[in-house]
Design a protein that fits this description.
CATH topology of the largest domain: Arc Repressor Mutant, subunit A
Order of helices and strands: HHHHHEEEEHE
Low-confidence stretches: none
Distance between the termini: 42 Å
Strand content: 15-25%
Largest sheet: 3 strands, mixed
Mean pLDDT: 83
Number of strands: 5
């Protein structure tokens, strides 16, 4: 489990530690290419880690999202989806989210144009509100090809 262990030092800044359940969740997410809900993650891990609870999964995912280790996506069905952020695993991308079936499509086309506009927007917002912007997430909501 070398990937999650590399992140151990980041937990200290959040007055937290890398516990066995957190490490299991990180390891699972780092190997998954899907955008998964807390319940799906719990169901996938519970067989191998019977002591892990659903509330632990929710709390861990919330912490990991605040730490910037995972991306949290709200797709409109009441359940957030999560994906591991990794330079090695994935290049920067954004999301198309179907509000009908919940399908999430990663896309990376037009990133240069988008990032130019986002950078300019970030600079203006940071200056206007004296705010340090650390990251962004762009999501387009609509209807996928199958649902239309």
């Amino acid at each position: 489990m070398s990937g999650p262990r590399k992140l151990k030092h980041r937990f200290e800044g959040y007055a937290s530690r890398l516990t066995a359940p957190r490490e299991a969740i990180l390891e699972f997410l780092s190997k998954s290419s899907k955008h998964m809900s807390a319940k799906e993650i719990y169901a996938s891990l519970h067989g191998s880690y019977p002591g892990i609870g659903l509330s632990t999964v929710y709390r861990t995912l919330d912490l990991l999202a605040r730490m910037g280790i995972v991306t949290k996506l709200a797709i409109g069905d009441g359940q957030s989806r999560y994906e591991f952020k990794s330079k090695e695993k994935d290049e920067h991308h954004h999301h198309l989210i179907c509000t009908n079936c919940g399908k999430i499509i990663n896309y990376s086309e037009f990133l240069d144009e988008e990032l130019g506009l986002v950078k300019k927007t970030e600079e203006r917002l940071a200056k206007k509100y004296n705010f340090i912007i650390q990251d962004h997430n762009i999501e387009f909501l609509g209807i996928c090809e199958k649902c239309k």
